[in-house]
Specification:
The structure is a single chain. The protein is of the alpha+beta class. The protein has a domain at about 25-85. Helices cover about 35% and strands about 10% of the residues. It has 4 helices and 2 strands; from the N terminus they run ββαααα. The protein has a two-stranded antiparallel ribbon with strand order 1-2. α1 packs antiparallel against α4. The longest helix has 10 residues, at about 45-55. It comes from Paracoccus methylarcula. This is HNH endonuclease.
């Protein structure tokens, strides 16, 4: 059972997501590709924005529709490793 006193963790960068940190839910299958009402994951906004700047909706639906697949994308691997060194509430701009 989740501890209500513990911040959720971003499954991509591994940092805690404090309440004050910019955050959003990512549809693992994009809504426009049949994912409406499907599974979502809570992410830091900077991680979420980077996914959508890197991959098209079609790529997300076909090949990157799991956390594991997203974590395996070569460009995203580098970004998540880099951002993991930032403080949990860091609001940096997407590269």
């Amino acid at each position: 059972m989740d501890d209500p006193d513990t911040d959720p963790t971003c499954p991509l960068c591994g940092r805690p997501i404090p309440p004050e940190a910019p955050q959003s839910r990512h549809h693992l299958i994009p809504r426009l590709r049949g994912g409406k009402g499907g599974p979502t994951v809570l992410l830091h906004q900077v991680c979420h924005s980077t996914i959508h700047r890197t991959l098209s909706e079609t790529e997300l639906a076909r090949h990157y529709n799991t956390v594991e697949a997203l974590r395996s994308h070569p460009e995203l691997v580098r970004f998540f490793a880099w951002v993991a060194k930032r403080p949990p509430g860091w609001k940096g701009k997407v590269r």
